[in-house]
Specification:
Number of domains: 1
Order of helices and strands: HHHHHHHHHHHHHHHH
Radius of gyration: 21 Å
Largest sheet: none
Number of helices: 16
Strand content: under 5%
Structural class: mainly alpha
Helix content: over 70%
Distance between the termini: 25 Å
Number of strands: 0
Amino acid sequence: MYNAISSAGMIVLIGLCWLFSTNRRRINWKLVGWGTGLQLLFAIFVFRVPAGRRLFLLLNDLVVKVVEASAAGAEFLFGPLALPPGAKGSVGFILAFQALPTIIFFSALISLLYFFKIMPLVIRGFASLFSETMKLSGAESVSVASNIFVGIESAFTIRPHIGTMTRSELCTILTTGMATVASNVLALYVFTLREQFPTIAGHLVSASILSAPAAVVMSKILLPEEQIPETYGKSIKPHYERESNFFEAIINGANAGAKVIVGVAALLVAVLGLVELFDMIIGVLGGKLNALLQMKFDWSLKGILGVLFYPFSLIMGVSPDDAGIVARIVGERTVATEVAGYKDLATAISDGTIRHPRSIAITTYALCGFAHLASMAIFVGGLSALAPKKTKVLSQTGFRALCAATLACLMTACTAGIFFTDSSILLGGK
């Protein structure tokens, strides 16, 4: 029954997107069909085809091993502070010393993959798939493909074309950037949840891939193409500056990772502090309103967002027993970032607040994206810096792209819900 609800949820989300479209007559339903079909085909391969399940578990084990290897440098620098919970001498989980350093390692690793021309080859493969099936422009296809693996850096792969892109193309690029996750930050989520959810790495990899076509679908419904893109029908290569040698690639990658760490840490300090301040203010006012109206409503940001996202939790196929806590966690991501969301998910799994494995899996997919206000500012600001003439269009499109990215993440969660079974080997590496 819940799998059927998840199926209906996809239709509801597409319908909601259609309701707020800027031009319903220009919606390319063939593109919508192909994008949705690609999602479902990939999900079938991962969840139902034996070879797909084996590949999934192989990727999961590979990512976990790489994450474990990434801890070596942190343990050398920080000693017991870097040891994960359960390890001999560990002082418990400390985000700054155990999870954040993995970002530096993965940034250096991705830089090496670019240096050896492996990453550009993979990006071109995915770009060809998106271009041939959904008929995206060449620049869009490359950007969507690169966003599966990297974050705001993906903008550099299409840097020469940003200045001439249409409003719809820019919305697609912003949406895809916020609906997927970078591989270096993905490692942070794996570190946070691998004890509670052993196959988390494989699910996050598949979620990032699934969310790419979903982001295109939602973006092209909300803001359909009304012009002919300059690179339409053209195959373009990812633009990037290759380092002169192996060690320069490591150095530049590590330095880029360090900047990401500073950005993530600063964002968490600022946003979580502001959320706490908001909760204090609204809590006082809400407490008086509760007393006046004899209510017991939770006047906090999580409480308010939990109410707003509760219907979405139900249509994703989450059990009513868990819908409340899932709604709070997914809603929280909108302002407090997905890092806080995954941390709260780990806590909810540990203390038994979330009861069903299905709810855990669906929440994992729903959270897998940068769909929050801070990320919107980062992507709009980053693209504006590369194409100043497009600043006005980007700023006008940013919030619409954030809504499309949020719906895309929920659509990906519905896709996972459609093929979920309690006996799946993808739940705990049985």
